[in-house]
Design a protein that fits this description.
Pathway: Carbohydrate degradation
Family: Belongs to the ribulose-phosphate 3-epimerase family.
CATH class: Alpha Beta
Helix content: 25-40%
Largest sheet: 8 strands, parallel
Number of domains: 1
CATH architecture: Alpha-Beta Barrel
Strand content: 15-25%
Low-confidence stretches: none
Active site: 30, 170
Bound molecules: D-xylitol-5-phosphate, zinc ion
Shape: globular
Structural class: alpha/beta
Order of helices and strands: EHEHEHEHEEHEHEHH
Organism: Segniliparus rotundus (strain ATCC BAA-972 / CDC 1076 / CIP 108378 / DSM 44985 / JCM 13578)
Number of strands: 8
CATH topology: TIM Barrel
Number of helices: 8
Radius of gyration: 16 Å
Strand order of the largest sheet: 1-8-7-6-5-4-3-2
Mean pLDDT: 98
Function: Catalyzes the reversible epimerization of D-ribulose 5-phosphate to D-xylulose 5-phosphate.
Length: 216
């Protein structure tokens, strides 16, 4: 699966840029609150407008404090998946439960410096796990290959039937890095600058998907 991140789109032309990635599996929407990360993007009213503008399922990535308070409303808007950060939640399972009750899949995001192990037990209550391969906050950063150890760990657990979550990766995914991530076992690839920085975003999505698929 390829999930273009509209963080790299033109915020004054969101409908146009969303339409430009028609073949995408999910549309990745980065919500930042200027507290959990040092950047501010958009919130629920804009997500509601994007929802009306596209049939592509919305994948909301909440880089915000207090997800227990704010996450369920993105599910109510109709997002397909709502991911919040492990580092921001006191009780991740309770938040996941609320997101699911509001009708979306629940995702747990993990920063590059955060260990996966303490969260393995709660992952049975989640639909997706988002492995960050850059520090959250900005598009266009360099891929951190060390996080692929976490992906391999998750893939091994999935292969043994001990986990069912979708493994998603976010940050620095492009034509040079996607195959390493695919080889480690990623199911869903977020790509911002590699899609919207391309001359033809729709073609960029196709070619990233093809590269991931060709990975042995
Ligand atoms: C960063 C965001 C990413 C960002 C990725 O905090 O979570 O979704 O858009 O951008 P690229 O693909 O350019 O690294
Ligand atoms: Zn993101």
């Amino acid at each position: 699966m390829i999930a273009p991140s509209i963080l790299s789109a033109d915020f004054a032309n969101l409908a146009r840029d969303v339409a430009a990635v028609r073949g995408a599996d999910w549309l990745h929407v980065d919500v930042m609150d200027n507290h959990f990360v040092p950047n501010l993007t958009l919130g629920a009213p804009v997500v509601a407008s994007i929802k009306k503008a596209t049939d592509i399922p919305l994948d909301c990535h909440l880089m915000i404090e207090d997800p227990a308070r704010w996450a369920p409303q993105y599910a109510e808007i109709g997002a397909k998946n709502v991911t919040f950060h492990a580092e921001a939640a006191d009780n991740p399972l309770a938040v996941a439960k609320d997101i699911r009750a509001a009708g979306a899949g629940a995702g747990l995001a993990i920063k590059p410096g955060t260990a996966l192990d303490p969260y393995l037990d709660v992952l049975s209550g989640f639909d997706t796990v988002l492995i960050m391969s850059v520090e959250p906050g900005f598009g266009g950063q360099k891929f951190l290959p060390d996080v692929l150890d976490k992906v391999r760990r998750l893939r091994a657990l999935k292969d043994k039937g001990e986990l069912t979550v979708l493994i998603e990766i976010d940050g620095g995914i492009n034509r040079q890095t996607i195959q390493a991530a695919a080889e480690a076992g990623v199911d869903c690839f977020v790509a911002g600058s590699a899609v919207y920085g391309a001359e033809d975003p729709e073609k960029a999505v196709e070619s990233l998907r093809e590269l991931a698929r060709l990975t042995p």
